[in-house]
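Weekend entry, working from home. Most of the wet-lab plans are on hold until the incubator is repaired, so I used the time to fold the two sequences that have been sitting in the queue since the last round of cloning. Logging both here for the record. First:
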Amino acid sequence: MIMMKRKFALLLAVLLLLLQLCACASEGGSKLAKPGSRADVLDGKKVIFVGCSYTYYGGVVIKDNYSVHSQEKRANDQGYFYQLCKANGAEVSVMDWCYGGHDLTDIFDGHCDANSTDKGHDHLADLVDRVYDYVVLQEIKVPEEWTAEQYHANIKSVMDVFRAANPDVKFFYVIHDGVYTGSYPAGWKESVKLVEQEGATIVDWGTLVWDVWKGHVAVPGSDTVYNKSSFIVSGTLNDGYHPNLLSGYLSALMTYCAITGETAVGQTSAFYDDAEVHRYFNVEKFVKDYYRWNDPDTEVDERITNFVEIFESEADMKGLQMLADQYLASECKLIGEYTVTFVEPDGREISSNTYHYGDKVVEPIKLEGNFRGWDRKVGPCAGDATYTAVYQ
């Protein structure tokens, strides 16, 4: 009897150990931290955002005046990124070093060539304090005549400016919606890959927004109809690409989570319309100012936006936050290659090709007989996929 009890106790102990090991495996090192639990990595730190209007239009940082060049006047930014840090208990110093219509060369080459009042200005000379803990870079576009290697060299030269001041500085490279709405050259994805290899963490809010408004992915738990105006402003005839406040929040959120390792799910957005923080966050005025023009060739009136309703929807915000976690975990889906295969109902392969994320998928030539189409809509490449032919 005693022997049986000992065997039972030993078996129970082994079972408990196995359960613990399984629990550890399911909660592996990739598990994201809870909101606010790792905000200490930003507390007391210095962060600089370097880029153009794709950063400040959405309120990630706040632009008050185009002509302000001094660090003193651009310091202590109170935009959405700062508000997220503050909400999680981190007091961080945020520098806004973003200039409209400028690429990184305009800001760091010693001679600005941007088509603005800054033409000829030396922005690099203004950047006296170059000691930062985190540098968030965002490029307006990749010049068409540049190779991926040239762009890599340019980004490296920018990173070296900050590394010379602080060898331990960490870099984050933000991909915005302009990579899709703008006229980017085909090789820009390879450029991003080289930036990642240079040591920058990729923050890809642009693809998330593009995928949702184009219907490539669904927002989990949401029945809201998303479209371009959910994320992009429509203020003038020529502006159908700048992010609105919802896109700005997603950019700030994903940057914050990339730095801290926290999950996006459950992060607050309560400050999104706090006009006491800054007048720019008066959403009623924002909608009035930035949704004034409609393209008559579009099916949806672009003067109408539902981004405020999305902010106010718990289900929508949770769904978008879930997608933010997924896109951050993808290690920049843009640089991978995926296989798209078309097959007959019995599984026989019709064709198979590799694509980069977002590429247009080419369907096989029209099949003979009573071919009706594919088992689902063929859209831009969003990963490995198989489409099955449907016959009448």
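Second, folded right after the first finished:
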Amino acid sequence: MPRIYEGGFRDWVFVVLFENGTHGLQADALVLKYNLFENDIGCGVLYMTDAQKGKTSMFESLKKKLGFGPAEIIVAVPVAGQAVPLSEVSDPTFSEEILGKGAAIIPSEGRVVSPVDGKVELMFDTGHAVSLCSEDGTEVLVHVGLDTVKLAGMHYKVHKKNGDAVKKGDLLIEFDLDAIRAEGYDPITPVVICNTDAYSSVQAHTGMTVGAQDTLLTLKK
């Protein structure tokens, strides 16, 4: 007997019947997708043989293939302060969006928290920058200050390491804001979506004072 996996999805229902049980999402799978509801309630049923039991990665792959997922992805503010456009950053790497679209924060405190649920891809030993990948596949770079790599870790304290799982609001980095300014460095903090090409739009919410975990960026597929 096939085993049944049920899950809810916005607006859509899908049915997948595996006839073979050994070929995953290849030719032996029959896929039907259609819109059942006008409201926000949907449902899905995935029929799997014993051979597929527990293979949740296959289920996640199926959702991606069928285009399921949130209509919008929110990237939160990682550090409290004043949100400004990337164009105001005095470094063309950021202001010309060479690394991707995003926004910047003029920090008012020395704490960087995770703007997404996901994992740490790269925590720089110097503590001046961190790259994360969200559960939705969004690649986010948080760069604390301009040219601050030259401080060689001075005035920074790292709280996470490469590969660590994180939730929104988890403390990533602490830094001495006054000391960095006293050293002559601009502490403005760009927040960049490095895989900008994966999204149809990246909307920055700037021109205001923001607290950590407020909405900074809204991404649409």
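Plan for Monday: verify the second prediction. The helical segments are 56-65, 92-95, 177-182.
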